[in-house]
Design a protein that fits this description.
This protein is an alpha/beta fold. Helices cover 43% and strands 15% of the residues. InterPro entries: Glyco_trans_4-like_N.
Length: 374
């Protein structure tokens, strides 16, 4: 089986990480990856996982050289062309004639809870995909809510396939050694309660709501400390710092974009995701695998992922975030630890990368077989 993946970029986002984990979990498949924006921070990890990155240093702009992409697809002769994210899906659609007997799959990676937060150019691509949505053999969504949102915009319903994200439970796990090391690095004492939020700086992620909630929590809980990691989570980011009240700043640690997220999670006591919109939140699944109780907003697949192993806020509004965090903090340490243990077991049973990768392989085989006989 030969699969040619076309993705918008290879930055540190959730879709990119899912692609990396999928490739690493399917060594029996030949994978080629083309990034529309050239190489990125995940390029080396993809190569180490066994992917053939067909980009070169000239491939730096979206749709810069479709003729070059077409030639690479023709040379690779894939059984499946797999688009990832909106621009990757559109490029995959445009390239179908380069491998007319290959199956074509799109992969939609987010919900559209608040369309005002989507860039105008991206909204145009979404409308184009809705018009073209009868063309692929299947449209993969990572959550029912993401499928619902896009089908409301005109995406064809009978192409829907739900495949959740999968997590490496051997990498993301509780680790007492990492906990001690990272808490010492951050200056966190044993009696401090570390509340974490791992997300890039982006309006969708709702850092404004997080810090409004955190300010109220800090007033009532002197032991609470707030640890944030992700691209843009730095004191040198003025737009971020403007959201953090002066009275809160000595309770906040900003770590920037870290590659040791399993170790960071091990140092936390509670994990948050307060986004306005998600597809399937990787950061939540990773935190759960590390035995962290999670407080999340009711967007994307967050509620389905957490189940009864965490606390669901009513909305991303700061009042609702504060109410949900208050409920979490009202529980005893033992109760929160029990939630965390149950959370990891839920990930192992239902959302491990091994389980999800088998579902991708089944879809690839079925789609390729059908396409070959058309």
């Amino acid at each position: 089986m030969r699969v040619f993946h076309i993705i918008s970029g290879l930055g540190p986002g959730g879709a990119e990480h899912m692609l990396w984990r999928l490739i690493a979990a399917t060594p029996g498949i030949s994978h080629a990856v083309f990034s529309l924006t050239g190489t990125g921070v995940l390029s080396d990890r993809l190569r180490m996982a066994g992917a053939n990155l067909v980009n070169d240093e000239r491939d730096r702009g979206k749709f810069r050289d479709l003729a070059s992409l077409r030639n690479r697809i023709v040379a690779y002769a894939p059984d499946v062309i797999q688009g990832w994210m909106y621009h990757g899906n559109l490029a995959a659609q445009l390239m179908r004639s380069a491998a007319p007997h290959a199956a074509l799959l799109w992969n939609v990676r987010q919900s559209l809870t608040d369309r005002r937060l989507t860039k105008p150019t991206t909204r145009t691509v979404i409308r184009a995909l809705a018009f073209l949505s009868r063309a692929p053999d299947a449209i993969i969504y990572n959550a029912d809510s993401a499928a619902d949102d896009h089908e409301a915009l005109g995406f064809v319903r009978d192409k829907r396939v739900i495949l959740p994200n999968g997590f490496d439970t051997a990498l993301f796990k509780p680790d007492l050694g990492h906990r001690r090391t990272i808490r010492a690095e951050l200056g966190l004492s044993d009696d401090q309660l570390a509340i974490g939020f791992v997300a890039r700086f982006d309006p969708w992620k709702n850092h404004e709501g997080f810090f409004q909630m955190a300010a109220r929590v800090a007033e009532r809980h002197p032991a609470a400390a707030f640890v944030l990691a992700g691209k843009g989570m730095e004191w040198s980011n003025p737009a971020l710092v403007a959201l953090i009240g002066a009275d809160l700043r000595d309770r906040v640690t900003l770590l920037g974009d870290r590659r040791d997220v399993p170790a960071i999670n091990a140092a936390l006591d509670i994990a948050c995701n307060v986004s306005h919109g998600e597809g399937f939140p990787n950061a939540v699944g990773e935190a759960m695998a590390c035995e962290l109780p999670c407080m999340v907003t009711p967007v994307g697949a967050s509620a389905d992922l957490v189940g009864d192993c965490g606390i669901l806020a009513k909305s991303p509004r700061s009042d609702d975030l504060f109410a949900a965090m208050t409920a979490m903090l009202a529980q005893s340490t033992e109760m929160r630890m029990a939630l965390g243990i149950a959370a990891r077991q839920r990930i192992v049973n239902h959302f491990s990368i091994e389980v999800v990768a088998k579902r991708y392989l089944n879809l690839y085989a079925l789609a390729a077989d059908r396409s070959a006989h058309v």
